[in-house]
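dumping this here so i dont lose it
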């Protein structure tokens, strides 16, 4: 499974961005997808997850109500809509695919910078 993130950039506080994660390869093996982020000097943090059919989602408290995870299985793409962005949301954002046999695959990351 290969993952490529896109959609990061520089945005002012209060603004919005939509991240995309395009999957290729053995996409049939993907059971769930997740979005993580890692700020300088901090551990990687799970933000949101979604099941393969999109029927179930979960969010970290830090982003609940502001971020929305979704997926389009026809396009093998998972999205993270980010609204009401804050300077503390600045980080490198990664998507992760979790397969049916328990393997995890990561994208290369996309930088999100929120200016105050």
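and the seq i came up w/
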């Amino acid at each position: 499974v290969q993952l490529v993130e896109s959609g990061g950039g520089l945005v002012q506080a209060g603004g919005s961005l939509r991240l995309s994660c395009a999957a290729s390869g053995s996409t049939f093996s993907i059971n769930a997808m997740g979005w993580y982020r890692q700020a300088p000097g901090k551990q990687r943090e799970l933000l949101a997850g979604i099941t393969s059919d999109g029927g179930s989602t979960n969010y970290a408290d830090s982003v609940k109500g502001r971020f929305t995870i979704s997926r389009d299985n026809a396009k093998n793409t998972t999205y993270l809509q980010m609204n009401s962005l804050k300077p503390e949301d600045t980080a490198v954002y990664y998507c992760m695919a979790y397969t049916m046999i328990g393997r995890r695959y990561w994208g290369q990351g996309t930088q999100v910078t929120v200016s105050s």
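The chain has a mean pLDDT of 96.
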